[in-house]
């Protein structure tokens, strides 16, 4: 296709970009292309052309489902949350009442199944926390799931198992339809590829979905430990395609908990107690899992949030070799910052978390020697940064991620730890899968923005319209071709 009349840098002259066989084949002054035009012609009208966005960490099925759930992110206590549910109860039929987005780290009370039972007696209720590490179930739903739990509040591994059990009660056809439709919404946001960390047999799930329709973004699906052996038997490697636009991604290992549940594993205890968080695998088991995956060519992606979890995860990478990814890397001791680049480990981070977690991080991690959300430190040390959203934890909004990484605030408050803010070009590259500019020979995955980010303020960058998204030289959103 020919993408006509676009600018590649603020104040630059208009150019035409020709794609051939899914790659950028020619970039030249507007109206100067010498190649025969193949496929559509997209007139950019002087808008800015950038490499398209990549969401390197989301949970696609959970995000698609969250779009229809009750938003309880504004609840400031367990009682307040249940009041929100009670006001919404009649509007949500008679099945399982699903809600999403609570943060209980600073609540004056604690979630408990009895709180749900007292206000919504007999109603099956499932409330998922903002960080997907806590699932709060009512007694009625626990009974339906055949689960006996003292509080009904499932955290970390228990939460993953509970979510998996709930998924089995969901109509598969409806879920598949909603998830495939959600990929079109991702394309509308300028995204052409994602890494899907949904906890499931993702080979089977995506193999089933592509029989119905192709996703509007490229899917790289994660492998969890339960399905690792099967992938190794198949001889599958990270990057291997199972169908057009669907490929095997990394091995996902949950190594610690999260900040808001106070289970992220830290060197120092959390305030008011002796707990310093939890490890969900022993360091020895982590090494064994990573080594097994690496032996078959599957890249490890290790969830590590607290500083101790990150130290131990980097130790494991040092022992196994071959590099990989750490997901989140939210708290690091200074000596570990240097290790990412040295070990070939990418930092897969979510800048929106830094802003939404700032108050909780100040309360639970304040005054420590470690660095919270150390994006600039990692960049200066040569680490490769990959941006994602962890949707539905944060919305899959690459423009917000860039703005949060650059300005470290999304409201009228001063920047939070501005010393860790990133330069704009580095943030853009991290949001675009490591691609900083349009280059000959690169995949023709591009996004057309109404204005270049370099000329926009914090607020305006978040709102700049995405005019078109192109994946491998084909339009997936907007930009009526001529």
UniProtKB/TrEMBL annotation:
Superkingdom of source: Bacteria
InterPro entries per the UniProt record, alphabetical: Amidohydro_3 (IPR013108), Metal-dep_hydrolase_composite (IPR011059), Metal_Hydrolase (IPR032466)
Amidohydrolase domain ranges (all copies): 41-477
Pfam families the UniProt entry points to: Amidohydro_3
TM spans (from-to): none
Record's protein name: Amidohydrolase family protein
Organism: Rhodococcus sovatensis
Organismal lineage: Bacteria, Bacillati, Actinomycetota, Actinomycetes, Mycobacteriales
